[in-house]
Design a protein that fits this description.
Largest interface: A-B, 11 and 11 residues
Largest sheet of chain A: 6 strands, antiparallel
Radius of gyration of chain A: 13 Å
Number of domains of chain B: 2
Number of strands of chain A: 9
CATH superfamily of the largest domain in chain B: Type I PLP-dependent aspartate aminotransferase-like (Major domain)
Oligomer: heterodimer
Strand content of chain A: 25-35%
Structural class of chain B: alpha/beta
CATH superfamily of one domain in chain A: RNA polymerase II/Efflux pump adaptor protein, barrel-sandwich hybrid domain
Strand order of the largest sheet of chain B: 1-7-6-5-4-2-3
CATH architecture of one domain in chain A: Beta Barrel
Number of helices of chain B: 16
Strand order of the largest sheet of chain A: 1-2-3-9-8-5
Order of helices and strands of chain B: HHHHEHEHEHEHEHEHEEEHEEHHEEHHH
CATH class of one domain in chain A: Mainly Beta
């Protein structure tokens, strides 16, 4: 069974988004997604300062099985990226909700998060 | 592991029998600064050592000449030796690539005839044989779509639509041609989601790239409605010819409404394939893209005495062409093999290619379903390939598509395509092709059944497979992240 913390939001496309204390949103892929992908070998990250719209393709994750696009969960500006993943992409597998995060966004409107799935709705979407 | 050829080297050993015959004084005029000061780092071996080394390596290969090779969507089928023989005639092999048309009527006539055959098979108005691989054919096709919109002053079309089941090369091609990619979802039945497509099109739509039958192994039932939707929005329809072998002689992309198509001659026309060797990805177009066809292109003139004369089209007569895509005449050796294949089979034979490819795929799909495997689209008739999903086996026994693929090697079967298309979890995409007989298909089903029984009883045996190959399970993470591909030992001294 995959872990689905209930203090974060989810996308159908298997990203998660967490509102941090400083008002920024950190983004990564779910435990379910990393299990499905298998061993991650490469993550292509956006540049800090990039303006993104919710639904934009902003990053790429590549595993031994497949390459997948990562979509921005909210509109805003990328403030930081997790450069640890350049040398240690395995963090995406080992700690998907922590050290394996992809990047942070300063959201234009944090209320956009409310439109994303909660843990229960996401759990439903990955069953079946 | 056997030794590398460099590790077999012994200083001073060699085989002079096949050394170049150039007399030493022929090099007297070569200026001193152009002469190398150190000998090349080549291994020193006897002729017999070289023969044994490469023969042993070839024996370790899984190849279409030695094994069943049901690699879905990549279509590995037998390369008939008759086609090889036809293309290997001295007149073809020894022709100088710069020989003028007057001395090249035979080969140019052959290429022109192949262009005409491909036009008829695909229902297109013009064909260029220039692209030297499927990916280059895709590039040529989308570059022509772009040239078409730009010639009309229609500069707002910046988006190419691609179904999620598409080959990975499609979005790469669109991106290389400067387009944004928008994905169109596929329904649970395996068709393009028409409603989502209708919502996605608009004045920004340059075109749609489609494979039909798709990589889901099913024929797109709503192709007419899809074509109308794209054309209605002012976009063009691109046909990825990867699966053309499924419909040869049955239905033509031109008649389905496609504006441009690339063909993989190494799939559909059984020319040699794989290993990064020479390919051929001709493009076909309908009337409106005709001016944009890439060169080299063979044209036919009628002579004063009513004979035919063939020559390369020149720049002045195709000013709107997207340009020259290959040096000399393209991969002529491959093109000649494709022509020989088409002529050997004839119209009826090409039709049988599609019929037997489809029959074999459907037989195998039903046999595997009867053996307890789960088809991804059980309600659909397969085209020339089909998908099974091992999601259940993965959940219950922890044994997935990769484990099955590796264990099949021990049964003497090349693994089918794994984990593609991406939208089906733990899938195998299986394409038997028309060249396999019933006994081979049944042996494959037996191997799959044996593997499944083993997956239940001894899952570890699958996790560690293959067991009988020269090397066992590869560490794919290290292979992807720390590839070690270059020999770094000391070069042998001369």
């Amino acid at each position: 069974m995959s872990q689905l913390p209930d203090d974060i939001k989810y996308l159908n496309t298997h990203e998660w988004a967490r509102l941090e204390d400083d008002g920024e949103v950190s983004v990564g892929i779910t435990d379910f997604a990393q299990q499905e992908l298998g061993d991650v070998v490469y993550v292509e990250l956006p540049e800090a300062g990039t303006e993104v719209k919710a639904g934009d393709e902003v990053a790429v994750v590549e595993s031994v099985k497949a390459a997948s696009d990562i979509y921005a969960p909210v509109t805003g500006v990328v403030t930081a990226v997790n450069s640890d993943l350049d040398t240690a992409p395995e963090w995406v597998n080992n700690d998907p909700y922590g050290r394996g995060y992809f990047f942070r966004i300063a959201p234009r409107d944090a209320a956009e998060l409310d439109e994303l799935l909660d843990a229960e709705a996401y759990a439903e979407s990955i069953e079946g | 592991m056997s030794k590398l050829i460099f590790e077999l080297s012994t200083e001073g050993r060699g085989a002079r029998a096949q050394w170049p015959q150039t007399p030493a004084e022929a090099l007297d005029d070569l200026p001193g600064e152009l002469r190398r000061r150190t000998p090349p780092a080549l291994p020193h071996l006897s002729e017999l050592q070289v023969v044994r080394h490469y023969t042993r390596l070839s024996q370790r290969n899984f190849s279409i000449d030695t094994h069943f090779y049901p690699l879905g969507s990549c279509t590995m089928k037998y390369n008939p030796r008759g086609a090889h023989r036809a293309a290997s005639q001295p007149g073809f092999l020894q022709r100088h690539p710069l020989a003028p048309p007057a001395l090249s009527q035979g080969v140019l006539g052959c290429l022109h005839r192949l262009q005409a055959i491909l036009e008829e098979v695909t229902g297109m108005r013009g064909v260029s044989l220039a692209p030297m691989a499927g990916a280059q054919g895709e590039f040529a096709g989308i570059a022509m779509i772009r040239a078409y919109h730009e010639a009309r002053g229609d500069h707002e079309r910046k988006e190419i639509l691609i179904p999620t089941a598409a080959h990975g090369t499609n979005p790469a091609t669109a991106s290389m041609c400067g387009y944004r990619v928008r994905e169109i979802p596929v329904t649970s039945g395996g068709d393009v989601d028409l409603e989502a497509l209708q919502q996605a099109v608009g004045p920004h739509t340059a075109g749609l790239m489609m494979t039909n039958p798709s990589t889901c192994g099913v024929f797109e039932t709503q192709i007419r409605a899809i074509a109308d939707t794209i054309h209605g929005a002012g976009g063009l329809l691109y046909y990825d010819g990867a699966n053309l072998n499924a419909i040869l002689g049955k239905v033509r992309p031109g008649d389905m409404g496609f504006d441009v198509i690339h063909m993989n001659l190494h799939k559909t026309f059984a020319t040699p394939h794989g290993g990064g060797g020479p390919g051929a990805g001709p493009v076909g177009v309908n009337e409106r893209l005709l001016p944009f066809l890439p060169r080299p292109l063979v044209v036919e003139d009628r002579t004063a005495d009513d004979g035919l004369h063939y020559r390369w089209a020149d720049k002045a007569e195709s000013p709107h062409s997207i340009g020259t895509l290959s040096a000399f005449g393209g991969n002529i050796g491959i093109l000649l093999r494709a022509l020989a294949y088409a002529l050997l089979l004839g119209r009826d034979g090409l039709l049988r290619v599609a019929e037997y490819a489809t029959l074999n795929a459907n037989y195998l799909a039903r046999a595997l379903e009867d053996a307890g495997f789960q088809l991804a689209f059980p309600q659909r008739r397969a085209s020339h390939e089909f998908i099974i999903t091992l999601q259940r086996e993965a959940r219950e026994w922890g044994v997935g598509a990769t484990d099955f693929a590796k264990r099949l090697l021990d049964h003497g079967v090349h693994a089918p395509t794994v984990h593609f298309p991406l939208l089906i979890p733990e899938c195998l995409l299986i394409e038997p092709t028309e060249t396999e007989d019933l006994a081979t298909l049944d042996a494959f089903v037996a191997a799959m059944q044996a593997t499944r029984r083993e997956a239940e009883a001894h899952p570890d045996r699958l996790h560690q497979a293959p067991h009988t190959m020269p090397i066992g399970r590869l560490d794919e993470v290290s292979a992807a992240r720390n590839p070690d591909l270059v020999w770094r030992g000391d070069p042998p001294m001369a």
